[in-house]
Specification:
The protein is α+β, with helices and mostly antiparallel strands. 36% of the residues lie in helices and 27% in strands. It has seven helices and nine strands; from the N terminus they run H-H-H-E-H-E-H-E-E-E-H-E-E-E-E-H.
């Protein structure tokens, strides 16, 4: 079911990926796709689930929408990537106002045997407004490196990879369930 929302063959996905990766190679290509998805698509926690092409056109999406767009773009560019999620405790209650654990989606890319993790959810404007920082010295953009008021934003409880080759009928449960 996740693949249904990736719409790899949609004209705007094909045109967009062709335009942004021209002249880019290797890890620079991955990083460029990531940064454009992260910072040019606004984080909107109240968005309804949308196709990757809709997220691209509307330039806004929630955690899952932006992650599906990143997965779609990276896969379309020929990279070996996985859609993953972590069950996280939101220490700030910015994301989960109830304080319950939530599922937070991200993408991993296998680049010549090195697994690189990308969470593209929060755009620069949202991070500035919410006073969230990301501390990392590498290409990875990991969940556990978000900081809010000098404390970790998320505590990762568990990590899971989603098998994109199988139809996942638990899709609505994955999207809507908090612990």
């Amino acid at each position: 079911m996740f693949k249904d929302y990736c719409d790899f063959n949609h004209e705007c996905i094909i045109n967009f990926i062709g335009n942004i990766i021209e002249g880019e190679y290797g890890v620079n290509k991955i990083h460029k796709i990531f940064l454009i998805t992260k910072n040019n698509i606004a984080y909107d926690m109240f968005c309804n689930l949308q196709h990757a092409s809709e997220t691209l056109v509307f330039s806004r999406g929630n955690n899952l929408d932006k992650t599906l767009l990143l997965y779609t773009l990276l896969t379309s560019a020929g990279f070996d990537c996985n859609l993953c999620y972590a069950v996280v405790k939101d220490n700030s209650k910015l994301i989960s106002r109830s304080g319950k654990n939530v599922k937070w989606f991200y993408v991993t890319v296998n680049y010549f045997g090195k697994l690189i993790e990308f969470d593209c959810s929060f755009d620069r404007s949202f991070m500035n407004a919410a006073q969230i920082r990301h501390i990392s010295q590498s290409w990875d953009f990991k969940l556990e490196n978000y900081v809010y008021k000098n404390e970790k934003l998320f505590n990762v409880v568990k990590r899971c990879s989603i098998n994109m080759k199988e139809r996942n009928d638990e899709f609505s449960e994955l999207v809507c369930t908090s612990y």
